[in-house]
Amino acid sequence: MPFLEAVRLALQTIRVQKLKSFFTLVGVMIGVMFLIAVVSIVEGMADYVENDFAGKLIGVNTFNVRRWPNFTPNESDEDWREFLRRPRFYQSDVDVVKSALPDGFRVAVNSERFIYASAPGSGAAPRQVQAVATEADFFVIKKFNVVSGRPFADREVALGTNVVVIGDEVATHYWPGRDPVGRELRIAGQTYQVIGVIEKQGSVFGFSLDRLAIAPYTSGLGRAVRPGGDVAQITVQAPNRIALDEGMERVRSAMRGFRRLGPEREDNFALETSDAALAFFDELKGKMVLFGTALPAIGLIVGALVIMNIMLVAVAERTREIGIRKALGARRRDITSQFLVEAATLSVLGAAIGAALGVGMAQLIALLTPLPASVAPWSLVTALIVGAGVGITAGLYPATRASRLDPIAALRQE
To answer: Rounded to two decimals, what is the model's pTM?
Structure first.
């Protein structure tokens, strides 16, 4: 039987036996639907992490000098005990880092903490803001565009002036429809003058980047964020990717010398780039794919079993037809290919419907949750190939059984 004729017969069977066909396809549909949804979400998250998460939260061509790594997926209790024994970072460490770097690098102390803030006379309720104590270069490193007012300057950092630059969400909460520049924001018992508003940054995985309140680390905010007088991390930006590696080696060498670490001793500080965050996500991505494909795999197995059962029933119902075809000269491979094509057609149709539902499901999740979704074209092609594979695998036994029927016995079948 020609290939197209076998496909036509399969589609005709679906049209005539709608309910049975639906239950035949449902397993493959569900399996492929969840497969497409999982792959779309994982791909969307990967793209989001590489282009938004790493860029916005860490920065381009930057590295952080920290007491311990910020991304620690597999650290043991002993590792954490070692982290806690490490010395904290103080101004002397900041001076060592700055002196080790050549011209063209930007350096900014960066300590942050969520603290309740209020705006006297605004009528708005107090709320938590992401208080960041830093330096003037922080705005350039993070590419924060101040749309109203101005960022604070190096002179204000040197003097420890209580000035603050706020995010769009903070401005909207306390002074909706009004210009907040020149007004007062009270954080941890101290009053700060608002001198600027940052352009809207959006969110990362549902976490708002617009609840910022940024002030000099030498101001009262620095003491509120880090009461011990230390700093959380030092952010360094290189002029390009090549200089980044050189800058990290310079800082590592200078810090080891300053802390008198011998050749046999490991670093008691961490140098961390965006690669660490991406490596952490790659490991998480692998686990998500592993667990996320378990349910689709079960659905595909169930679908294969259903297709096999339906095809066995079809062979029993069409025994006389098979006998007639054999009596007219059909070979075993002709009968086998006919039933394999029918099974594959059923499965591919179910996969196509499941792929469409999976795309819709992924978009719905992206709309209703912070999870991003990006449909990869290869996943749609893979879904159809998987569908065909499931159909052929499930139809192989019924097709072989049909091809081995004795034509005389088949013709006697009522």
So the answer is: 0.63
Spatial distance between the Cα atoms of 132 and 343, rounded to a whole number of angstroms: 62
What is the Cα 101 distance to its own chain's centre?
34
Tokens 């006998």, located at residue: 323
* Average pLDDT along the chain, 414 residues, taken 10 residues at a time: 66 68 74 80 70 62 88 73 92 95 93 94 92 94 92 95 96 93 94 95 76 95 93 92 90 95 92 70 66 68 75 68 69 73 78 85 78 74 78 74 64 56
- Distance (Å, rounded) from C-alpha 21 to C-alpha 69? 55
- pLDDT for the residue 284: 64
User: Could you tell me whether strands 163-166 and 190-198 are parallel, antiparallel, or unpaired per DSSP bridges?
Assistant: parallel
Q: What are residue 347's DSSP bridge partners? A: none
Please name which of 286, 296, 299 lies closest in space to residue 35, comparing C-alpha atoms: 296
* Amino acid letter for position 190: Q
Residue 188 CB neighbour total at 10 angstroms: 16
